[in-house]
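User: I'm putting together notes for a lab meeting next week and I want to include a structural view of one of the chains we've been expressing. I don't have a solved structure, so I'd like a prediction I can at least talk through. The sequence is below, exactly as it appears in our construct file.
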Amino acid sequence: MQELESTKLLHDMLTRPEDSNMNTKRYSASLVFTLSYGRRIGDDDKDLMAVLSILDDFIADCYPGAHLVDTFPVLDRVLPDFLAPWRAAAAKKHENEMKLYTRLILEVKERMDEGETGLECFAARLWEQKEKLDLDLTTMSYVAGSAFEAGTGTTAGSFLWFLMAMILFPETLQKAQAEIDAVVGADGETIPTFEHLDQLPYSVALTKEVFRWMPAAPGGFPHYSDEEDEYKGYRVCGDNP
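Assistant: Thanks for the context. Below is the predicted structure for the 241-residue chain, given as structure tokens.
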């Protein structure tokens, strides 16, 4: 599955390099979508556009100061709805998320009921364990949808940071390319796979260095310690941002 999507990504980068941002997002989304719902997504798939919109909203809402109520939580307790626009915005976003995630997981159930064979995905396992785990539709929708959402932005972000690193440090790119050519050949007929990992120590280290250099996890989340704590010998004061 990963090799299939990797080949598609390489083709997209060669034929549409100006769309590198969307190419990486389609790759990561299709990979996680297959794991979550058992089918791939295309370049202009409406589900891809929908989840990217949800992801963008989530990241924007998480930035410190995005909403006045984040700074003054008491406002959420004392203001009526017409003076608290964040409530209506949050309710609308929740509604959009539920429409998408519920439709996707119900599509998997329909395929299962139709007797589709070989349907191996996270959503199908949730349906099979529904009674045992006492799962309702809302819970299953969000569990499967959150996995799809979380795996899309971070993977695509790492790809984009890798592209930037290769532009900034071309000598590193040349070393990695030389190593790959030595293992699979320089004719372009064979791409490296998981079977070649042990033979590509420099390329593997380069990938890990990108993760260290520019972590893709969203940053800027405010943290607050409710009570005094100790971590690895360091004292963390209570009631302290």
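A couple of points you could mention at the meeting. The mean pLDDT is 86. Strands lie at 229-231, 234-236.

User: Perfect, that's what I needed.
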